[in-house]
Structure formats: C-alpha cells, structure tokens
Fold this sequence. Notes:
Blueprint: H1 2-43, E1 46-49, H2 50-53, E2 55-58, E3 69-70, E4 76-79, E5 90-91, E6 96-98, H3 100-104, E7 107-109, E8 114-117, E9 125-128, E10 132-134, E11 138-142, H4 150-158, H5 160-169, E12 171-173, E13 176-178, H6 181-185, E14 188-191, H7 194-212, H8 219-236
Parallel strand pairs: 4-10, 5-9
Antiparallel strand pairs: 1-14, 2-11, 3-6, 4-6, 7-10, 8-9, 8-11, 12-13
Helix pairs in contact: 7-8
Amino acid sequence: MLLTFAAADDIILTDRQTDRQTDRQTDRQTDRQSLIKLLQYVFGYVALPFGEIATIVRGASPRPIRSYITTDKDGVCWIKIGDVKPNTKYIVSTAEKITKEGAEKSRYVKKGDFILSNSMSFGRPYILKIDGCIHDGWLAISDYENWLLPDYLYHLLNSNEIQQEMKKKASFGGAVQNLNADIVRELELPIPSLEKQSDIVAILDRFDTLCNDLTTGLPAEIEARQKQYEYYRDKLLTFKELGA
C-alpha cells in the first residue's frame, strides 16, 4: 500500500512539473509575441527567420509513382508543376490522383498552405485551393497564419529582394540550382502588423489588377503600370534596418 501511495505521489509530482513547464513555455510565447508586437508598433516591422513563424518541409514521392496513380474518385490530388497555369496565384485542380497508400508515402498538404517550387524555375510560390500531396520537387509552407496574411506572404515571396536572396543561397546540384527547406527557413522576412500587411496588400492588388487585366487600359499603359507595380512592391516590402 505504501508503494502505491508513493507511486501516486510521484505521478502527482510529475503532473505538477509538467504543468509548470507548460505554463513557462506559454508565458515565454506570450512574452515573445508581446515583444514582437511592440517592435512592430515602434519600428513598423520586425525581421524574423521564416522558419520561426512557419512550418517548412519538403515534399515526398512514392516510387515508382506510376504504381500509385489512380482514377478512383476517392483518390488524393497529386500536385505537379504541370498543374500550374502561367502567371497564376492558386492551384485549384490536378490532372492526376494517387491512392491513399501512395499518399501515406508522400507529403500531404491542405487548402491554404503555400507550395514553393524547389528546382529549375525555383522559388515560385502558389497558394493551394485544394488538399492533396506533393512530390520532392516542392516545398510546403504552413502554420504561418498567426504572423502573416496569405496575400502579403504571396507578394513578399515574389518580391525581387526575396527572389534574389533565394537564388543567391540556392545550392547547386550539377548544372541545376536547388532550393532546400533550410534555405527557406533561414530567410529573414520583414513582418509588419497584420493591419499594415492588409494595407500593403490592398495597394499591391490594385496594381496587380491593372497589370494583368487587359480590359483596364491600353497595352502601353499596362506596361507602365507593370513597372510601377514592381517599384511599389519592392518599396513596400523593403524595410530599413532597425536603428538605421
């Protein structure tokens, strides 16, 4: 009986230690969030490594892939670069599906996640409008919503500064540059408040519409708007160093 009571005391003590540890972790996260919000308020933004505010992982492919392609309506969408239309922002459908067994050997992604091409024309971001699986030619970005609006992140990843940074850091595999998850995790992103991000998105979206909707003006004007859009995009997404 004494052993039983001792064991119970150990369990209670362990539970209390776990609770205290959880409370400390929660307090640290709250303190960090408060500090970040203060910096955003004072300086307009805070620069954070992408990997600290999002989950970034590489895709995976079941092999041989042909063994897992299915026409079953219950199959899982198999997202390939060929499913991406030129100059598009969203991925809305796929030409092929894979079996559930194949999905277990791949990387599952959800609607609202970003995927980023990691070879050849690497670094191009897309927002998913569907659930599905990605192969190892993609990187998946998720769990960013507490810090970043999807549209802001889309414009930011497309900016010249971030694109050049990815290109500069990409490793070489033979004659082809490859972008890995660690490179993307280490990117320093300027993070203003969500309200400021919304203002930036509203401006850039208006320019984007002018640039890509042929019904809004003559081709010459559209070309001028394109240059103006790129200028303001990079201007709005380039932040001075703190204290500079």
